[in-house]
Amino acid sequence: MTSVIQADGLTKSYGSRRGIVDVDLAVLEGEVFGFLGPNGAGKTTTIRVLLGFLRPTSGRATILGQDCWREAPRAHALLAYVSAEPAYLGHLTAGEQLDYMARLRGLPRGAWRSAAERLELDPTVAVRKLSRGNRQKVGVVQAFMGDEPLLIMDEPTSGLDPLMQREFLAMVAEVRAAGRTVFLSSHNLQEVERACSRVGIIREGRLVDVTTVRDLQASHWRSVNLVLQSPAPETLFDLPNVQVVSASARDAHLMVQGDVNPLLRRLATIDVADVAISTLDVEDIFLRLYEGDREAGDGSGPPGSDGHRPSGGNVEGERNGPGEELAGRGRERAR
Fold it and tell me: 222: closest CA among 261, 265, 266, 268?
């Protein structure tokens, strides 16, 4: 299958400060690829390098075969982009702004109307008067109004209400069904869980895992709550992948890592009044990956067992607007 995005040893340093380090990545044609990490982990830096806004310190990246730095204009013609913090011409209405962006991409006037209606964006309001959520809608609408083979989205639903987030996910599903590719950067883990087929997790500038959402869940923990008809034998839950969180004569709360079938076979030997098995969402799994080096946890317990939450180190340049992106690119090219 064709790689739409290919990165090999991609590194960006800001002097002595870490940006991203040796990122190897392949995003395949027709997939929705989730790029997960907290603020400061390196998500936006990675995207800026892919877009040619920043020159990599070392390594190389391509979009549909076009070098992201040397052939950036050609790569840009193949993609639509949503910034995490979009900036617009404030004196224009939302509709005028979208028509302006449509002309830049060779799209007809009003190409944005269908997407704007779905996201309930009023095109008659001046951009400078829009709320943060509605300004974000402008960015999302302009990404969906074309038919470029690749959409790169940096936290696109930031500021959107839950109903609009649901509509956004429906639009992403339609894009995928049409054979197009989406690179979705987010720290909204439930959003990625619902939208993506594969996920890459970036931590402190390094890509620490690339896997399917299903495999990520399967290799981690499930919560099992039991109501028993009679007290269980003391050794019933003695399995290598089972931890007992709490237990009484008739109730038990367990955490099961990976395959749940060995536990189910044990339960088939006793009378069970009720059982509830819940798969942890990606957020719990994501937190677990970040707890490995916390001083109070050794990585062996179920998610959140040591009470720590992840925190990524700040990455210089992680949160600038499009103006700074373009200015930064000009400075890089002048070197």
Answer: 261
Q: Which region holds residue 117: left if phi is over 0, alpha if psi is between -120 and 50, else beta?
A: alpha
Q: Hey, how many other C-beta atoms are within 10 angstroms of the C-beta on 156? A: 29
pTM confidence score: 0.76
- Return the closest-CA partner of residue 237 out of 277, 276, 259, 264: 264
R_g of the chain computed on alpha carbons:
23
pLDDT tens by residue, 75-106: 999 999 999 888 888 789 999 999 999 999 99
Angstrom CA distances, 11 to 59, 62, 210, 324, stand at 6, 14, 18, 20
As given in the structure block, the two tokens for residue 49 are 């390098």
pLDDT > 50? residue 324: no
Tokens of 267: 């339960």
Q: What is the pLDDT of residues 212-259, one digit of tens each?
A: 988 876 777 889 999 999 988 889 999 999 999 999 989 999 999 888
Q: Looking at the domain covering 221-279, what would its CATH class be?
A: alpha beta
Report the 10 Å Cβ neighbour count for 102.
18
* Cα dihedral sign, 92-95-100-104: positive
pLDDT surpasses 60 at 62: yes
Q: State the Cα torsion 90-185-156-3 to the nearest 10°.
A: 90
| CATH topology classification for 3-78+148-216+314-334 | Rossmann fold (3.40.50)
